Amino acid sequence: MCHPSWGRALTEARHRSDLVRLRRVRDRIDREHARPLDVLALARGVSVPAGRLSRQFRLAYGESPYAYLMRRRVERAKALLAHGGLGVSEVCSAVGCSSVRTFSARFTELVGVPPDAYRHRATGTSAVPPPRAAEGETRPVRLPTEPARTGLRSAATPGPSPNPTGSPGRPRS
């Protein structure tokens, strides 16, 4: 029969090995944040199911592996934007994001301002607004136009009757 302390020792050893795995995952994210990484690839790297890795990572570090990866990417993007040499799309691809829209949304969520505004603040330049924004208009205005002539009539658009006499039946020739 096993000694009771062996069970505790085994549990502690498993816990330590789990922490070592999690540290390896975190270190890989820190090293390779500019590469396309996902939780499945990270889990495969340490031979753990993806769901288990996510749960353990969240318990150990307080955020999911994806949230940690995006936070690292945004930190790197802040440094690149502060130097002012790159635009938002170049910074987005430099930090490993494939979508500028997703990157901008996440950057704004974490930093509090959009990446372009952050770049202008950090470099001390002011963004020149487009002419419409300077006039107070933020959206283009559609001017009323005549309805398109498709040959079809709707009840809302008055037009000439197909029968010029106005009477039912065959039109005169």
From TrEMBL:
Q: What is the lineage of its organism?
A: Bacteria, Bacillati, Actinomycetota, Actinomycetes, Kitasatosporales
The segments labelled Disordered in the record are 118-173
In what residue span(s) does the HTH araC/xylS-type domain sit?
23-121
What keywords are assigned to this protein? DNA-binding, Transcription, Transcription regulation
Protein name listed in UniProt? Helix-turn-helix domain-containing protein
Q: Does the keyword Ribosomal protein apply?
A: no
Transcription as a keyword of this entry, yes or no, is yes
Gene Ontology molecular functions: DNA-binding transcription factor activity; sequence-specific DNA binding
**Which parts of the chain are coiled coil?**
none
Check the record and name the Pfam families matching this protein. Answer: HTH_18
Task: List the SUPFAM superfamilies hit by this protein, alphabetically.
Answer: Homeodomain-like (SSF46689)
Looking up InterPro entries in the UniProt record yields: AraC_XylS_family_regulators, Homeodomain-like_sf, HTH_AraC
